[in-house]
Amino acid sequence: MSQNNTTNNNESGDEPRVELETFIPYRLSVLSNFVSSSIAAIYSERFNISIMEWRVIAVLGNYQPLSANEICERTNMDKVQVSRAVSSLTKSGRVLRKTDKKDRRKSQLRLAAKGMKVYQQIVPLALERERQLLTPFNAREIKEFDQLLSKLEARARELCITS
Predict the structure, then answer these.
(1) Whole-Å CA distances, 110 to 59, 101, 115
(2) What are the average pLDDT values for consecutive 10-residue runs of the chain, which has 163 residues?
């Protein structure tokens, strides 16, 4: 944790304040936005899909069939985001929805051939962008970074559950 996250240099002198430039949650958010935008530039132009639609395609490409709730769980997207993305992908013929015969409220989602083609074309592009992003690190640093991210993600999940 940075020593410069809070200072007492505000007008009253007795309340802590946050320095965004060194505040880890803010820095992670900014980094995430840069990385997502970088990858989104690739697939929004070539495939006319949004970040949320790509996330649905990506998770279905690995774990189909899934319900909308399962997509929410795997992507950490909220129900509205998933619903909009699935609706758009269904309209464009990239995702197929099959209603459960026993419970009509449930449906299973899977990639249509058109969606699978998009998935297969984007994956190498996304992996290449990841490779480019990680070029400042050597193999040991990448492994260590991955381990640190896993620890941070686990702790963030714990804090979400307990709050």
Answers:
(1) 10, 16, 9
(2) 51 80 93 88 87 94 94 93 96 93 85 96 91 96 96 92 77
